[in-house]
Amino acid sequence: MLFKLLLALAASASALAARTYSEDKHDKYGDKPYGKVVSEPKYFTSAFSTRAVPSQVVVTNGTVDPRNSTAYGHFGFKINSDKDIICYDISLVNVTGGYSSPAFTATHIHQGPQGAAGPPRLAFPNPEFVGYDRNGAELRRSKGCLRGPFSTNITANGKDTGSDSGFTLKAIEDSPSSFFADTHTAQYTAGAVRGQLLASEVPVKKPDYFTSTLRTDATGEQVVNGSSVSVPGSNGTKGVYVLHINSDKDIICYEIVVDGFPEGQDYFSPAKTATHSHSGIFGQTGPPRLALKNPKPVEDDWKSISLFNSLLGKKKTAGIRVASACVKGPFTTGLLDVNGTDTGSASGFTLKQLEQNPSAFNADFHTSGFVAGAVRGQLYRP
Prior knowledge:
- Residues 1-17 form the signal peptide.
- It comes from Kwoniella pini CBS 10737.
- This protein is 8% helix and 34% strand.
- By secondary structure, it is mostly beta strands.
C-alpha cells in the first residue's frame, strides 16, 4: 500500500486536476480542508527550517529530474504542540509554472528521511506570486498559521495521511530530520525543491540575565565582497546592532536600528533573511552565523522610536528602520556550506564563540543594490 501511495504522489497531473491555493473556495479566514486558519499563538514549543533545493528531490520513474533547476526555497515553521498549531513562512525563488498534486495543495511536510520518499503529513497554502528579484527570478510566498486536526487528501491503509494516520506535531519535534518540506509543480511532480527539517531558533521571553553585550556601528565603508575585496556600500547609511547574549541558555536578544536605508531598494539575500552576523575579521568575508529580522520602517511607534533613538544618539523619526527579538538556538541561516550544512549552529557555531572573540564576527544587511552589503561593522564590547 505504501508503494502505491508513493507512486500516486509522484504521478503526473494528467490523471488528477492540479489544485492551487487561489482555486481553494473555502473562506480565507475559516476552516480549510487541511486545517483551521488561526492567529499566531502567544508562544511556541519549537521551530524548524530548511533550505529546499532541487538536488534533494527523490525522483521516481516517469518524473522529470529538477536538478538542473536554479530554484530554491526557504521553509520556516514554528510549532505549538500544546495547542496543535503550526505557523508557516514559505518563500520560493525561481519556482515557475502551475502547482500539481493529488493532495489538497502542492506544498507539504512529508515524513521520510533524506534520500527517501514518504507520505505527506501536512498541506499548506501554495506560495503565491509576489514579484521578481534583482536577477529576474520569480518570487512566491505563503505565510500563516493552521490548527489541527490536519488532512492531506491522500490515503494509506484507508486513512488520510494527516492526523487520521496518528501523525502529531510532537512527532516533528521528536525527530525533525525524519521529515522534509517540498512543493510540487506540473513540470516537477516529484518535487521542484525539497529539504529536510532542521531545528531552528524559537522566539522566547527576555532572560533574567545576560552573559555579555556586543555592539557594532555598521557603515558602508567597511563592506567587502565574497573575495574579501573592499567594495562600496551605501554612502550615508548607518546601522547600529546591539546583541545581548545569554550563552548559558543559548539565547540572544538584539536591537537593530538603520538610519538612511538605501532609497528605492529592497532587502536581498539568498539566506532566509538579509540581515546577519557573519564570521569574519575586519576586511575578510565569512559565512553568516545568525539570520536576524530585517529592520522595518517605524513612523508612529513612539516606544520603538525612543528606544532606538538612544542607540543612534540623536532624535529622529523619519526614515528609521528597526528590528528587535529574543530567540533561543539552535540557529539557522538558510545558507549551506560546501558540505551542504546550514551555516548556523549545525556548522558548529555557538554564541560562546561570539562572546569569546567578538572582533572575529561582523554584522551587516544586504540590499538589491548592495548585494555584498549595504553596511558592515565588526562587533565589539561597548
